[in-house]
Design brief:
12-stranded antiparallel β-sheet, 4% helix, 11-stranded antiparallel β-sheet, AttH-like fold
Length: 367
């Protein structure tokens, strides 16, 4: 059963070869409401570590022909004023607790299992004159409690043996695929309140030597049954992957998925071969939208997801790989997706579910 919390998978994984060529990040996304107008806005915050063995008292950038090494704090918002803001620290400027539970501290930026805080400010001049920052301009400040309610533990593929052998090129663990956030965000001078009941929060992590292509991610816990009209208060789905690599072997067009449906688990995990999991997916870019269609089956269950997100509400999220290359140049990322999920047992429809506030991502390497 996938809903097994395991904070050992959430510790910093930059040991051995991954310390020389590797990244590790903790991602958080959630929705807030304007303190005065009540306007809804979706936010994201990420703490991204790269190549500690090359670290010094200043960050170094692949965009400048250096071996990248830094702690990058990425924060931003989706919507019509979507922006990603990056703040960089040298490794010697940061305190990283490599144990369990993890802790990251540098200046006013902090992350642990149950709290995140910090700030990022990038002026228009800085964004324009420093393309190596790979970001837009703006400011964001946050102070939030985190309560990770439902986990997506993918199983032995991210277990201790596979982590120590560093077999996969990119690992994934969602300690809080359904998470409650509480606190506030100041976005470009405007105050937003984040509450457990309406945040639709998500928290996961990825680590490894490089990124997957294609790159697919879809998740939401703002779900309503289209059959009964009932709000699904104890439900969340999470879909991720694309092309996992085990050493030099590419496992093409594979996704890992889980649906926690009112306390009952439904999992579609190719690494659990005994379930006979089969996956078909298609991601399409039009002039105005990104569209996902995912169809997964095991010998017993089936899940069909049809999701769209408006490009005007999304951004092209930026990362450079540990070797300094920037291979993803059209990695679409959003937090306002909408769509439907159909869940079956055999041929019987269990439920048809309307989903909103969907975290979503799609991109492929430049060809």
């Amino acid at each position: 059963m996938f809903n097994k919390h395991d904070i050992s998978r959430n510790q910093c994984q930059l040991f051995w070869h991954q310390a020389e060529k590797g990244y590790d990040w903790w991602w958080h996304s959630f929705t807030g409401h304007h303190a005065e107008t009540g306007e809804e806005k979706a936010f994201f915050i990420e703490y991204f570590l790269c190549n500690p063995l090359h670290g010094s008292d200043r960050p170094s950038f692949g965009r400048l022909g250096e071996t990248p090494s830094y702690l990058m704090v990425k924060a931003g918002s989706w919507g019509e004023d979507a922006a990603q803001l990056h703040r960089f620290f040298g490794w010697k400027q940061a305190e990283i607790d490599m144990g369990i539970p993890f802790v990251i501290k540098t200046d006013d930026c902090y992350a642990s299992e149950d709290r995140i805080s910090g700030s990022v400010t990038v002026s228009e001049e800085e964004a324009a004159s420093h393309p190596e920052y790979m970001c837009e301009s703006g400011s964001m400040k946050w102070d939030l409690k985190v309560n990770k309610k439902v986990a997506f533990n993918v199983g032995y593929g991210a277990g201790r043996l596979f982590r120590e052998l560093q077999l996969f090129e990119m690992f994934w663990h969602a300690e809080g695929m359904k998470s409650e956030f509480e606190g506030e965000v100041i976005w470009n001078g405007e105050r937003y309140l984040i509450t457990p009941q309406t945040c639709y929060g998500y928290a996961d992590k990825n680590w490894g030597k490089d990124f997957t292509s294609p790159w697919v991610w879809l998740s939401s816990n703002n779900l309503t049954s289209e059959i009964t009209g009932k709000k699904l208060e104890d439900s969340v789905f999470d879909i991720g992957g694309g092309c996992p690599k085990v050493g030099p072997i590419a496992l093409k067009r594979k996704l890992l998925s889980a649906f926690w449906y009112e306390g009952k688990p439904y999992e579609f995990n190719f690494s659990k071969f005994w379930t006979l999991c089969r996956t078909e997916f298609e991601c399409t870019e039009t002039d105005t939208q990104i569209i996902w269609h995912v169809d997964q089956r095991t010998w017993k269950h089936r899940m069909i997801a049809d999701i769209t997100c408006e490009k005007k509400d999304m951004l092209l999220v930026n990362y450079e790989s540990p070797d300094g290359a920037k291979r993803h140049n059209r990695l679409w990322n959003g937090g306002n997706g909408k769509g439907t999920i159909q869940l079956f047992e055999g041929e019987r429809l269990i439920d048809r579910i309307h989903a909103e506030n969907i975290g979503c991502e799609y991109g492929e390497y430049d060809r």
